[in-house]
What does this fold into?
Amino acid sequence: MKDSIWPVYQNQFCGTDWIYNHVVNNPNWVENSIATIEMWLERGLNINYVEPNKGTMLAWAAKNNRSKVLDFLIKQGADVNRARTKKITPLMDAVWHGSVISTLLKAGAIATAEDEYGRTALNYALYALKEAVQEQKEKATAEPYNEYAFLDAKEAEGSVYSGLNSVIEEFKPITGRNGQIEKLSINPFNVIIGSKELETRLKIRYLKTLKSNGFDPNDFYPNSYLTTKEAALETKDKELISFVKYELLKLKDPQELIKMAQEGDLKSVQVLIQNGTEVDETDQQSQTALMKASQAGFLDVVDALMKVGANVLLKDDQGNDAFNLAMKEGHIEIAKLIKKALREQITQRRNLLSNTLWDMRKKRLYLLSQQGKNLILALGKEGQLIRD
It folds into this structure.
């Protein structure tokens, strides 16, 4: 029977609950548990039987951190991806236990498998982290002098972090039978961005890993109502927003460059420049990023813009160039820097003009010489005709 843990008669030797609770999940009877399961496998025990609420024996061992039983079941060929009710996989059930997660992934567990709501092990791991952090806070409040309780909670949080790291590393797109990449329902970038338990530095690290693993933050995810950019903006985290917009999404918006230059955000300016953003685009007042930075007094931003050839000769609607704007606001060091660049750009333009004129002269002389040759040839032919 397919709905039984025993293939011939249901409850032939013992009930399903007894097998799960007293054999698979028995911390004081590990060696006997393995021997018992091995004996029952020889008698026809269905190793991949799915109990609706507990899953397979492997899933139950994983959820309860029975690592030795888990290792044995894997060696016996248990399916590490066999899901229970609501398509919950063993990996999703085991997110509290970092070492178990690692074991399952090495055995072929699929990190990107989705439950019936489109959630993956990544969602489950971050939820477990939320619970672990909350538990740690509650124990610290309820038992402020109980060091052991605090350490237990801290250890649980560390185990969840370990599992989360493993899931992130193995969180890679799957190619379907038709050769196409299987799209996820929920945007994994948004899942990371929206976590309140993760520090910004960790979010950035995880987002980089997702992208290097092959996920595209610009893809459409049907169960996510926010784009990756919108999710980042909702956090109000300037560092995270800057990373998502300019490093993750590689935005090249010239108006964004002008805004960042005006705010003195050197890192964002540098990333936008690296992305290939046009540095001499203007806003509604015909002001460039260089003009904004010069007027606001951000020397490092001005220097960064000029190193990539920002034009210091351009003027806004009021006839002011970057040098004039810096002088008006009393930014002398910036004015000096611009003046030096101004001289260099004027010299370069003069040299270019001079070289262009010289090239034109040479071309004209060449054309004249060619015309002279043609005239001589024509006269020679005419003289030959006369003689003939």
Q: What stands out?
A: Residues 1-13, 381-388 have pLDDT under 50 and may be disordered. The first helix runs from residue 16 to 24. The chain has 18 helices and two strands.
